[in-house]
Structures are given as structure tokens and as C-alpha cells.
Amino acid sequence: MRIISANKRWRVGTILLGIDDTGAVIGIDDSRHWEEWIANIARQNIVPAINVEYTEIQVEGKRIGLIEVPKGPDKHYQTSKNFYYIRIGSTSRAATQGELMRMFQQAGMFHYDQIPVEKTSIKDLNLTPSFEETGEEFQVTLPLS
């Protein structure tokens, strides 16, 4: 689940089942219905839900599962437990707070200019119009709070 959600953030990818971390072919067994299991993870454990393609091939006489993770319309995907994962090389790990802020800002979902500045008020703003720049008068209307 974290590998799928991390892959969705950056690119299209293929996840191989039955290949260990050293690249050795170990195959998958008949302990589960792999296609259904993968589809359930992608639909129920990733927000927003995604559609993945699952196929199987034979390599060295062993079954290998291929999970095709297509590029999605959304920028960021999280697990159903509210974790966002990022890819670092060939690994996936939970994003830090700073990484999350950058991810959302890059996606246009988070804007620093809309964040309140603590211990400030309207008195801290310079509301003196600059007539030299525009040469015109204008009126500033502020919300009462």
C-alpha cells in the first residue's frame, strides 16, 4: 500500500511480486487470489482510491505478479491511516511535516500567503496608499472582526 501510494505521487510504475530485494526470482504462491487482493488494497486502503492493472507472468518457471500503477489525476495519495509516503531511491517512507508542506505547496493546494501570522493584527499592516506609484486615490475596505 505505501509503495503504491508513493509511486502515485511521482510517476507511473510497475511493482513486482515474487522478486526479492536482491532481484532473485522467488515467485508467488496460491495462498491468496492476488488480483483481488491487490485491487482491494488499491480501492480501500489508498485515498483517493486508484485503479491498478494486475497481470501474472512466468519467469524461471515461477509465477510473478505485475502491478501497473498508472499516473493518476490527483497529486497526492495517502493511506487509509492518513500517512503520505514518498519514494527515496528504491524505498518508501512516511513523509515528514516539511516534506508534506512542500508537496502540498507544489501542488497548489497550500499557499503561504494565506496563513495567519501569529501575534499580529490589522495595526501591524502599513495601509498608507502610495500615490506616487499609481497617481490615483483608492479606498481600502477592511472586514470588521
Please, could you describe this protein's structure?
The chain is of the alpha+beta class and 145 residues long. The chain has one domain (2-113): Schlafen, AAA domain (Methyltransferase, Cobalt-precorrin-4 Transmethylase, Domain 2, 2-Layer Sandwich), CATH 3.30.950.30. It is built from four helices and seven strands, in the order H-E-H-E-E-E-E-E-E-H-H. The protein has a three-stranded antiparallel β-sheet. It has a two-stranded antiparallel sheet with strand order 2-5. A hairpin with a 2-residue loop joins strand 3 and strand 4.
Question: Keywords for this structure?
Answer:
145 residues; alpha+beta; Methyltransferase, Cobalt-precorrin-4 Transmethylase, Domain 2; three-stranded antiparallel β-sheet; two-stranded antiparallel sheet; 4 helices; 7 strands
Give me a quick take on this structure:
With 145 residues, the chain is α+β, with helices and mostly antiparallel strands. The protein has four helices and seven strands; from the N terminus they run αβαββββββαα.
Q: Indicate the structural class.
A: alpha+beta
**Poorly predicted ranges (pLDDT <50, ≥5 residues)?**
5-10
Instruction: State the share of residues found in helices, binned by percent.
Output: 10-25%
Task: Please tell me the CATH architecture by its name.
Answer: 2-Layer Sandwich
H/E element order:
HEHEEEEEEHH
CATH fold descriptor: Methyltransferase, Cobalt-precorrin-4 Transmethylase, Domain 2
Per CATH, the superfamily is Schlafen, AAA domain
Secondary structure tally: strands: 7
Cα-based radius of gyration, to the nearest Å: 24 Å
| Largest sheet composition | 3 strands, antiparallel
Mean pLDDT comes to: 79
Distance between the termini: 46 Å
Number of domains: 1
Q: Globular, elongated, flat, extended or rod-shaped: what is the shape?
A: elongated
Q: Which strand order do you get reading across the main beta sheet?
A: 1-4-3
Number of helices: 4
Query: In CATH, what is the class?
Result: Alpha Beta
Oligomer type: single chain
Beta-strand content estimate: 15-25%
